[in-house]
Amino acid sequence: MIEWFAHNVLGLPELASSNGKAVDELMVYVHWLMLALFVGWILYFGYVLFRFKAARHPKASYEGSKSKLPSYVELAIVGIEAVLLLGIAIPLWGKNVSKFPTPDQATVVQIVAQQYAWNARYAGADGKFGQQSMNLVAENNVFGVDPADPAGKDDIQILNEIHVPVNKPVLVYLSSKDVIHSVKLVAMRVTQDAIPGLRIPFTFTPTKVGRFQIECAQLCGGGHAAMAGGFVVVQTPEDYAAWLQSKSGSTGAQSFE
To answer: The CATH number of 103-247 is which of 3.40.309.10, 3.30.390.10, 2.60.40.420, 1.10.10.60?
Structure first.
């Protein structure tokens, strides 16, 4: 019922992650409350027009209604909103920002946003990321990879395409090269700000093979619209392994101007 309402009534976009189900449920609950309030206020408005029309009350009453029902209704609405906020929304947020898969159980991707593109980095065949330093960040080295570290020789760096296997948690470490950006993966129901100087983790588990757009949820400059040129490509484990193999050794950092 909830899924049908979400996609057939609210018209929510395609859901392609396991963690997004709870997000959709919360949106459905909020809209059910809004629908109940909308219908309730329309009925109440109609009742007031009938109950207090001039033909029934030629002389105005200055005492007003003495019923306590409106107060009870308002308290009930506040109670429902408190349940949605304290019982669903905050716990959902807390789970998403505090419980992350361990790197050995997830596909680990480093993402650095910049005007106006998404840079992604994967550990190479050795499973280890090369050392990084903020002092090494440059136009042709957005991740600040230490060229002297042998662990980084086989790291993979790509632009505007983030490949992940289906049905396996993805652990992303997000940062920004210049201004505040925000990764918005609508199909995964994930949004996270990218802030210069910080490496912020977020996670999702894709459940559908496909190609899903990345959007920037923060106005980041004159070319902001170009940030929609990035994609998350969800593949079968076999196709993902083949893609990794095809990119093995592509250590040259790329930049976008």
So the answer is: 2.60.40.420
